[in-house]
Design a protein that fits this description.
Helices cover 51% and strands 21% of the residues. By secondary structure, it is an alpha+beta fold. The structure holds adenosine-5'-triphosphate (ATP) and magnesium ion. Magnesium ion binds next to helix 4.
Length: 222
């Protein structure tokens, strides 16, 4: 193991312990929101509680991802059919009330097995779908295709949203953390790339020929 690998491991351990430490104050804030809401008998601030809860949920998810990503061998795990996992990971987005987003999922009849961690790979799928939804601004189409090609398992996620600016494309190419969203963390794509790599695959995001974005994920079959 060379020096670079040693320092990376140390950074990952630091990320895991920081994530662990952050969980305690987050739980305390959550408990206090519950308490204040209970005391607010006139229910004057329901919207604020819901905003705070939503933000706390995001922070908790992020911390959870850090802990999972830092686990040694976290991505080896089990044999997974990508088709099942993708359906599971996007199911909560399919039933959003009042949504004007069309989901098209093409997955064929044959299983698409790969080796990995369900929990971690689900983060890649939901992070990607979330980006597509956010790019649509409430209305549009998201197509998810899963198939085999040239000995690899491929998943593409295509949206007809706003697409990436030249600046965004460059920053993604440099693996920078960046966001153009008011409440974004700017970590999603970097984490997705890392998850794909840890599963022996690749993650690419580009603009589509007819506008919008296309994410292409490849995985070695198992
Ligand atoms: N499907 C997409 N269409 C258009 N732009 C996108 C798409 N996916 C990502 N982007 C752009 O890339 C930026 C970085 O995405 P990334 O997922 O890394 O962070 P984020 O979505 O801003 O925040 P979060 O960490 O909460 O996911 C986004 O802010 C957005 O500008
Ligand atoms: Mg994102």
């Amino acid at each position: 193991m060379n020096e670079k690998e040693i320092s990376l491991d140390a950074r990952e351990m630091l990320a895991a312990s920081l994530a662990h430490e952050i969980k305690s104050p987050l739980s305390l804030v959550q408990a206090n929101i519950d308490f204040i809401e209970l005391c607010d008998t006139e229910k004057k601030h329901l919207k604020n509680y819901s905003v705070m809860r939503n933000e706390l949920r995001k922070a908790n998810e992020l911390v959870g991802s850090l802990v999972e990503l830092a686990k040694p061998d976290g991505c080896r795990g089990e044999r997974i059919d990508l088709r099942d996992l993708a359906l599971e990971a996007v199911s909560s987005y399919l039933i959003t009330p009042g949504s004007e987003i069309d989901f098209v999922i093409k997955k064929g009849d044959d299983p698409l097995y790969f080796m990995g961690s369900r929990q971690i790979f689900a983060m890649l799928i939901s992070g990607t779908v979330k980006n597509a939804i956010e790019a649509l601004g409430g209305k549009g189409k998201i197509e998810i295709h899963m198939f085999r090609s040239g000995g690899a398992i491929i998943m593409t996620v295509r949206d007809n949203g706003c697409g990436l600016t030249q600046d965004a494309l460059e920053r993604i190419g440099n693996d920078e953390y960046f966001t153009t969203k008011r409440y974004g963390n700017g970590m999603g794509i970097v984490i997705c790339k890392r998850i794909a790599r840890d599963h022996g695959g690749t993650y690419e995001i580009n603009n589509g020929k007819d506008g919008g974005c296309v994410v292409r994920v490849t995985l070695p079959p198992a």
